[in-house]
Amino acid sequence: MLPALRADLHLSPAAAAFDGAPQWTLADPLRGRYFKLGGSAVRLLRHWALGDPEQVLAAANAEPGVPLQDTVLEELLTFLSQHDLIAALDPRQRASYGLKAAGSRQSLGTRVLHQYLFFRIPLWRPDAFLNRAWPVLERNGGWILRYCLPLLFILGLFLVMRDWSRFIATFPHLFSFGGVLAFGVALTFAKLLHEFGHAFMAKRAGCRVQSMGLAFMVLLPMFYTDVSDAWRVSDRRSRLLIDAGGVFAELVLAVLALLAWSLLPDGPARTAAFMLATATWVTTLLINLNPFMRFDGYFLVSDLWGVENLQNRSFALCRWHLREALFGYGDPAPEPWPALMRRRLLVWGYCSWVWRAVLFFGIALAVYHLFFKVLGVFLMVVELVWFIGLPVYKELCHWWQRRAQANPHKLFWLGAGVLLVLAVLLLPWRTAVEVPALLEASRTSDLHAPVAARLKALHVQDAQVVSQGQLLLELDSPDLDSRQLIVRREIEILQLLSRRQASRSETAGDAGILEQQLAEAVAEYRGLAAQRERLQIRAPQAGVMRDLPPELTPGLWLSPSQTLGRIVEPGVRLRGYLAEASLWRVAPGSHGRFIADDPARTAVEVRLDTIDATGVRYVELEALTSDHHGPIAVRRDAQHRAEPVQAQYGVRLSPLSDIAEVDQPRRGVVVLEGAGESLLGGLWRRLAALGVRESGF
């Protein structure tokens, strides 16, 4: 005899399948699970109470439809037994409970290790409250949303546009302590309203909302609402409204907050209104509507396409498609999807795999930084192995077990592709080492006026060869002349007073004071004379005069910050920085080429002369820093010095051919011939360096 079914099961009609076949939903209210059944299973369940398998089959076959065989009844019985839909009065069903409990039993450590990433804490059963509140909302919500909400939005937008500058000026307050606190309060209120939006839309569809509470994802708390009873709803529009109810609720809140911002006085309440009108609903759209996470966006896509259990069914189709594309087993597809829906599911499934890999890697990093280092490293490795490594390992094991069934033609091309990839990854074909460098004159001196002065005479021209100490410009400073004249008169007066007092015995005690004042005045006069001498600008070295401003004419006033030209010494020098990762690949004597950023310049053959024994603390060649559009990433310290983000070693190089005179520094890159390194070797070296750096417990 067939075992009895559980009395609490509920069977209800569902939307038709893609081929138009009728479907039914079998609800298990005890565990909150729902199953889609086809016409054959429902025909058998209608007569299940007969008990005798032959009578059940005969009664089912008496109905219109395809004749059913014994195997269909056996498959249905197995399905009901595996999902515990058989009444506990059956002895075999009771015996299976112990086996299932033993198979699912885990130690405390295993449960903590795998369940701390996500767990729920139910706090409230809101169904009674929703039953009382929904009729009131149903009577008044329609006209409010249809007429009042658009008017409030237009009014709020109009008031904000009138005070747009103050509205925008609220943004900097977000980064203060009060702004962060207001954002947290506003976000909490918005997410609570978000969950009530789901709950009321579920109640509108006649569903039971079992619980509301807190869910923790990587120990980050968030509200949740259990609307799993929505699987019983067959109307697609109602299910879409349940999925989008939270977003709709937050958008309504944003409209009200937009108007409230214009009406509230300055303070925390107005800042919270600003948050609700801007940041909270934007985060909702970015996070909740993501179709690859099991939030609102996932269920919207699932109900819009009419594909229940979208993730598992899409992943099964992707696994089948991948295996057939690589090995050609010839297996049938898991489900007979229409062509358009198959393409949708394949695109969604492959994109979801990529997203989950990125997400799990991000969770592993978050776990690493969330705990102290030893525990963080352990948990990060566990997450990477459990969520990324283990699924890949299982799939590889499946491929190996079915290696004999693979299509030889596909297997040949797969092996060729693997060998090609391994060759690209393992062969040390990368021999070039790039060194950001600057080609400049061997020595350059900038000319400046010592003080604010006026040009008296110009004795040099641009591109003129000058010798060391040659007079280039004569300046005069009326202010300096007047100050020198005043000090000279002061010296004369002090000298006169000193001679007069030396002849009087009653003022002989003041002679020491006069001598001190006279010494100070003489020292000041000599300093002014030295400054006056500096107004005669001479060449600090032999070289060529460059960048002489064309507006230099006698009588022109000059500022000390203004560059009056440069003396460029003949010869060039080439300096650069070698990254620590490439330090082992080159040595002094290596040859290469300097390629300037200017494509009109020809490449220059160079030789590596020296490499610094230690890394540089600051990058002296500012043209190579990232904030000057250079290739070396730097950050600025309190003194605005360029600290390299990654270790850099200073190098000096020599051109192997004659180079024309360098008027301006030329930025470029030196490509040196170094030791070969494979892509996989370089990756391993970086990972090893990262491990050594992070292993300092």
Task: Explain this structure.
The structure is a single chain. By secondary structure, this protein is an alpha+beta fold. It folds into 5 domains: about 10-105, no CATH class; about 115-305, no CATH class; about 305-405, no CATH class; about 445-565, OB fold (Dihydrolipoamide Acetyltransferase, E2P) (Beta Barrel); about 570-695, no CATH class. About 50% of the residues lie in helices and about 20% in strands. It has a 6-stranded antiparallel β-barrel with strand order 7-16-21-18-17-22. Strands 8-15-13-10 form a 4-stranded antiparallel β-sheet, with no helix packed on it. A 4-stranded antiparallel β-sheet has the order 12-11-9-14.
State the gist of this model.
The protein is an alpha+beta fold and 697 residues long. The protein is 49% helix and 19% strand.
Task: Give the topology.
Elements: E1 10-14, E2 23-28, E3 33-37, H1 39-46, H2 53-62, H3 70-82, H4 91-104, H5 108-115, E4 118-124, H6 127-162, H7 164-169, H8 177-204, E5 212-217, E6 220-225, H9 236-263, H10 268-277, H11 279-287, H12 296-305, H13 310-327, H14 339-370, H15 373-401, H16 408-426, E7 430-441, E8 444-448, E9 453-458, E10 465-466, E11 471-476, H17 478-502, H18 511-534, E12 536-538, E13 543-546, E14 557-558, E15 563-568, E16 572-579, E17 591-596, E18 604-611, E19 634-636, E20 642-644, E21 648-655, E22 666-677, H19 679-694
- Return the average pLDDT rounded to an integer: 85
N- and C-termini, Cα separation: 66 Å
Given helix and strand content, the structural type is alpha+beta
Portion of residues in helices?
40-55%
